[in-house]
Each structure stands twice: as C-alpha cells, then as structure tokens.
Amino acid sequence: MQTTEAIQSRRAVKHYDPSYEMPEAEVRQLMELALLSPTSFNIQNWRFVVVQDAGIKKDLRAVSWDQAQVEEACLTILLCAKLDAHADDPARYWKDAPAAVGEMLVPMIGQFYDGKDDLQRDEAMRSIGIAAQTIMLAAKAMGYDSCPMIGFDPAKVGEIIGLPEKHVVGLMITVGKAIKPAHPRGGQLPLEEVVFFDGFPAG
C-alpha cells in the first residue's frame, strides 16, 4: 500500500473481530516500525505497552468509558514516555554515529532538558504523537485498522500497567481486524482555513 493511500484510508475504527489473533511476527513488525519514529536528539523517550492479555484488556476497558474496542481489538497499545530519558545514559543514543557527531550532540542533550519539567513533558507528548501516527499508518499498510483514544482514566490505566515513576501515559491505540467500517468522515475544514503560507494572515 502506498503511503498516500494509507493516509487517505486510515480511519478510527471502533468495531473489531474479537476472535482474530495477530501473528506474533506481525506484532513485532508493527512495533519495530514504531521504533523508527523520530524523537528530538534521538532520545527515544517513548515506551510502548502492548496488551494482548484478555484479563488486562477487560480491566482497561473498565477505566476507558466501557469502550468495546479496548477489549475486542487484537492489540491495545498504551503509548507512554519516560520523562527523563534525556538523562538515561545519553551517549547510547549516538553510539553508532561518527565520534565527532556524538561528541557534539551528547553534551547538548542535558543542557537542553535538565530542570525543565514542562519541556520534558512537552517532548514526551510530541514523541508519543509522532509514534502514534507511525503505528496507525503502519497498521493500515499491514492490513489492519486502528483507533487512537484518549477516553480513559490515565491514573487508573497507569495502575493497571504498572507505570513507573517519571513516566507518563499519552494515549491508547487499538489495532485489529475491522468488522464494521468507520462512520463517514465528520467534516474536514477547508484547507484555506487551516493552512497559511509564510505566516498567519493579517487581522
């Protein structure tokens, strides 16, 4: 599937075949593609909890407004991030780069993030958002559908998945085989209302 086709055909699907199991090799392929998502300074601050266990899915559904797709999809993926990933042996993020590149960039990482809690959280959400789109487009290209979700209690989700300190839950994505198509698109704003060239229009 071409990238443009995946973008055009990706929809938030709510109804999945609960009997379908994604092959382990495809689960791994999907998550390996997620790991190619870019992050600032290559800090790879996202953390992914891929839930396949029926009991855990049921618990997650209970704290997600009883949304059926959480329990019925092949995978329910919690996209999380480590807030202080920038300080977690940052040299490893550039271990395969030319030495001069690592020597230049590694010291910059701490200078940029240390002591800046808001920036660390903003960076976490940016990374999660980029990875989320990677997962959804990759899933579509692999023949699966998905649904990005924020309708859940993040504190309770954190308890269920054992979220460590200095980590945050960003969003949830369900992935599986659709048994019912998404509703028609709700209505896209015209390009002229949201896309501007060289700055916002005056007035």
Describe this protein with a few key phrases.
about 200 residues; four-stranded antiparallel beta sheet; 4 strands; about 40% helix; globular
Characterize the quaternary organization of these chains.
single chain
Approximate strand percentage: 5-15%
- The main sheet orders its strands as 1-2-4-3
Low-confidence residue ranges: none
Count the beta strands: 4
Query: How much is the radius of gyration in Å?
Result: 19 Å
Structural class call reads alpha+beta
Spatial shape: globular
Query: Approximately how much helix is present in the residues?
Result: 40-55%
- Please report the number of helical segments: 8
Q: Report mean pLDDT, rounded to a whole number.
A: 97
Our measurement of the CA-to-CA distance between the termini, rounded to an integer number of angstroms, reads 43 Å
N to C succession of SSEs: HHEHHEHHEHEH
Biggest sheet descriptor: 4 strands, antiparallel
Q: Describe it for me?
A:
With 203 residues, the protein is an alpha+beta fold. The chain is built from 8 helices and 4 strands; from the N terminus they run ααβααβααβαβα. Strands 1-2-4-3 form a 4-stranded antiparallel sheet, with helices on both faces. α1 packs across α6. The longest helix is centred in the middle third of the chain and has 25 residues, at 117-141. The protein is globular. The N and C termini lie far apart (43 Å).
